[in-house]
Amino acid sequence: YVRQAAEKARKRVHTTEMWDPWDLTHPMHAATIEHPEVYTFVEVSQNNHQKGQAHYDHLLAARRRLADSPRPMTSVKVYGADTGRFGTSKDGVERFWRNIFAGLSAVRFHRPDAGLGLTERAQRMIASAREVTGAFDIFSCEPRPDLLSDRAENEAYCLARPPDEYALYFPDGGEVMLKTGGKPLTLRWYDIENGKWTQSASVSGEEVRLSAPGQGQWAAVLRAK
Questions:
Q1: pLDDT value at position 4?
Q2: Cα separation of 158 and 161, whole Å?
Q3: Res 207 pLDDT > 80
Q4: 148 beta partners
Q5: For the chain, what is the radius of gyration of the CA atoms?
Q6: What pTM was computed for the model?
Q7: Spatial strand order in the sheet of 207-211
């Protein structure tokens, strides 16, 4: 794979590769991550074999490795479907949303039976993702897990541009504390499975407690007034 990377550099081919190892720290992934002169973006779909908190943590670790040569990270194969052998449909939709909240530039469900493809549920997730990401300036935000406290593993994930914008993803309800810096904010909750916004509310304080309105997947969007 190192020789392959060198050959592509020699030919000035700007592309990417999808390596087989499920662990992004495997040396094979270094051929992509450590060669910005060859690869203009980094494909991390194999990380979608990870579950829960580990899935997100591995994405942020790869993001840190790209800090000196920032490039888009993509995930064009989100695995996970009840019909396949790479996790359940619940795993698949959680991976889809965690990819977004880890700051990936492109996310796509893998085809059945390994993924949800363009099934009804996948389409619902895509529509909800567009609704949520359109409600704040996602391109100015970055993953900020450090802003969350009183949080259980895999309970909530945060994108933010403090002190003006925050978005959180809850895979299955929950309650966390969010550091906001004290600026008055407008809060809206989005029911991901049912595609509905709640009424807006006002919150303020150095920290605010956010409790998802129910079980299941929820997103919260907070913006300065």
A1: 59
A2: 10
A3: yes
A4: 178
A5: 18
A6: 0.91
A7: 148-149, 175-179, 207-211
